[in-house]
Every structure is written in structure tokens, then in C-alpha cells.
Design goal:
Rossmann fold; 2 domains; two-stranded antiparallel ribbon; binds thiamine diphosphate
């Protein structure tokens, strides 16, 4: 459904003023750029691999929203916990989940971070405290409250950071999570990636109040809204928010206003939004903006940029080779990690007569 009212009301956040960059900061800014480019190029390659049927299942790209994952991640410590959505390749990479295991996961190989069982929507990496990858819209929110509550009860000064979309904020789980996080005063940073659409539904058609910081206020929670297309603005806002959560042991709500440049997933004809709207937001691409900012101040040469891209592309090629060389989980392992309430012993007679494909049909 094409929705003119929604499209017209989606005003762009104002561009940040082009302040001059302290040369001491230049290296950090180049690093932020490198991280965003790494996510973008990785995902562009994933789209190609999807068309080539190397990556199967669903694939949701973060194209346009990279400044959020990269900006927020700067203030988090290795022991802090991350919970994300199914659009989580950017968070996983920015967090430090190795690209190899992410790619192998998407290929469905045993060497993937979830033995190839999760795929794109379920990246999970215990070593990085990266707790998903959650395919259920809003599903990560209660999980994040639980993680933060555990940290509080155990007296650990850790923060849980939960990324979710505007669509999740229309779910019951969002309200339950906001309520309990505020009531129990848990150290949780809510990061709402407001890209204006939940699949093809514009926020005007799913939220009675579409000012997200107002929603947070109704739970007595402090909140800030930031331009999610500006990595420096996100980084600054997130740093204050994380300090608040860590020091005051209270939740905080950070809304990042953003836009996804590509379709919702690989199956989406995008009939619900105007091409002009997409183009207008593309003009605010966080990668282009930061590149131009650095270049205009002589802090990034063409050669620097080319070197950055070459090294990223090499890493991506190595990740693909790693995934290609990976192994498929043997069929005998199909029922490993599959739990059932029925006692297989009590069904031994039935089980003994079942063929492998019968068993598979039962567990699926
Ligand atoms: C509980 C539930 N309902 C519906 C879906 C189908 N669905 C998948 S993505 C999506 C839109 C979510 O939008 P949003 O939270 O704004 O995140 P975005 O995709 O924009 O990043 C929906 C409705 C789902 N996965 N889970």
C-alpha cells in the first residue's frame, strides 16, 4: 500500500554543523569510518551471496543505519551485554564478533557462531556477550531486562544494551520491558532504531503516540532523541547515556532517528514508500557524510580511503573462503540441542520403528 500521508510527514533530521575536527581526533574518526564501511561492504557482499544462493533463509540489511551500531558500541565495555534484532550484522561486527564466524553462520556451516543453525537472524556469540540476533519483533527486550536484572542482583557494574526497531515499540513486550526496567531500576540502555517503518507499515499507522521519547517519559525513564545518521552525534549521546546507566543504575532510552536505504528484507517490492523519500535520506548517508567531513579538512586522502576499502575487501574475501571451506553439520546431529517434553524411553517401541525421516518430521 502506498501511503502518502506517512511519506510526507517523514521529515529528515537537520544535518549536524560541520565543526572543524581536532586533528588529535582524526584517527578515531577514521576508525569510525572504517567500521561503518566494513559493515556496509560486508552486507553488500551478503546481498550478492544471497542472490547466488550461498546465503539462504532471510536476510535483513542494515544499510543506512550503520552509524547507530558503531556510535553506540564505542562506550560499551567488553563485559557489557548486547541484545539485538534480526537486522543485527552491524551490531555483531561492531561488537567484535569475528567476520569469519558471522559469514560461516550465514552459509549454514558448522564453523558459524551458532553451528550454522541460526543463520542471519540469530547471530549469537557468548565470548562477545552478544546475546542475539532475535527474530521475534520485540523478543530481545524482556531478555535484556533479565540480563540487566542479573547484573544488578550480582552486584556487577555492567550495562546491557538492547537495540530494537520502532515496530518493536508497538508490541506488548516493549511496554512490559519498559515498565519492569524502570520499576526495578536495572542498568539497561534501550536503543530504539527508528527507521520510520515496520516492514511496510509507517509509524503513523501503528503508534498512537509516535514521539518515542514521550513513551519513555510515561514510564518515568530519562530519554534523548538523536540524529542516527550522524555517527558522532550518536557516539556522544550514547556515551552520556551509558555513563548514566552505569553510574545511576537506572535504565535510559535513546532514540536514533534513521532510515534503511534498502528493502526490509530480500523479499520486498517497497510499494509503501516513495523513491524520492529514499533518495532524500540517501543524501544523508552516514558514511558519505563522515568521508566528506574528513576529506574537506585534509584528514583523509583518496589513498587512505582506497587502502581502507582494500583491507576491508580482503577481510570479506577471507571470510567467504572460511565459510566456503566450512563443514555441514552431519545429519545424525539433527536432533542435538532439540528438547522435547515427551520421554523418549516411554516411546521406545514407537521410536524403534521410526525411520530417520519420521524422526526428523517429528522434531521439525
Ligand atoms: C512478534 C512478531 N510479529 C511479526 C513479525 C514479522 N515481522 C518481521 S520484521 C517486522 C517489522 C519490525 O519492524 P521494526 O521493529 O521497526 O524493525 P526494522 O525491521 O525496521 O529494523 C515484522 C512485523 C515478527 N518477526 N515477530
Amino acid at each position: 500500500m502506498k501511503n502518502k500521508t506517512a511519506v510526507e510527514s517523514h521529515s529528515l533530521p537537520k544535518s549536524a554543523p560541520t565543526n572543524s575536527i581536532d586533528p588529535k581526533q582524526a584517527e578515531h574518526l577514521r576508525d569510525l569510518l572504517q567500521q561503518m564501511l566494513r559493515i556496509r561492504r560486508f552486507e553488500d557482499k551478503c546481498a550478492e551471496l544471497y542472490s547466488a544462493m550461498k546465503i539462504r533463509g532471510f536476510l535483513h540489511l542494515y544499510n543506512g543505519e550503520e552509524a547507530i551500531a558503531v556510535g553506540v558500541m564505542q562506550s560499551l565495555k567488553p563485559e557489557d551485554a548486547i541484545v539485538a534484532t534480526y537486522r543485527e550484522h552491524g551490531q555483531a561486527l561492531a561488537r567484535g564478533v569475528p567476520m569469519n564466524v558471522v559469514m560461516a553462520e550465514m552459509f549454514g556451516k558448522l564453523e558459524g557462531c551458532c553451528r550454522g543453525r541460526g543463520g542471519s537472524m540469530h547471530l549469537f556469540h557468548k565470548e562477545s556477550h552478544f546475546y542475539g540476533g532475535n527474530a521475534i519483533v520485540g523478543g530481545g527486550l524482556p531478555l535484556a531486562v533479565g540480563l540487566a536484572l542479573a547484573d544488578k542482583k550480582l552486584g556487577r557494574k555492567q550495562v546491557t544494551c538492547c537495540f530494537f526497531g520502532d515496530g518493536a515499540a508497538a508490541e506488548g513486550e516493549f511496554h512490559e520491558a519498559m515498565n519492569l526496567a524502570a520499576l526495578w531500576k536495572v542498568p539497561l540502555l534501550f536503543v530504539c532504531e527508528n527507521n520510520l517503518y515496520a516492514m511496510g507499515t509507517a509509524i503513523e499507522f501503528s503508534h498512537s503516540v509516535n514521539n518515542f521519547t514521550e513513551k519513555a517519559k510515561s514510564y518515568g525513564m530519562e530519554s534523548v532523541s538523536v540524529d542516527g545518521m550522524d555517527v558522532l552525534a550518536v557516539e556522544e549521546a550514547a556515551q552520556k547515556a551509558v555513563e548514566f546507566v552505569r553510574d545511576r543504575l537506572k535504565p535510559f532510552f535513546l532514540e536514533c532517528r534513521t532510515y534503511r536505504f534498502r528493502a526490509h528484507s530480500m523479499f520486498d517490492a517497497e510499494l509503501y514508500r516513495d523513491k524520492k523519500e529514499v533518495e532524500a535520506w540517501r543524501q544523508r548517508c552516514p558514511i558519505t557524510t563522515l568521508t566528506q567531513k574528513l576529506q574537506s579538512q585534509g584528514l583523509l586522502s583518496d589513498q587512505d580511503l582506497a587502502t581502507m576499502k582494500t583491507s576491508i575487501d580482503r577481510e570479506i574475501e577471507a571470510a567467504i573462503a572460511f565459510a566456503e571451506a566450512g563443514t555441514w553439520e552431519p545429519i545424525e546431529d539433527l536432533t542435538r540441542f532439540v528438547y522435547s517434553q515427551s520421554n523418549p524411553e516411554s516411546n521406545s517401541e514407537l521410536n524403534s520403528e521410526m525411520t530417520t525421516s519420521d524422526r526428523q518430521a517429528r522434531v521439525l
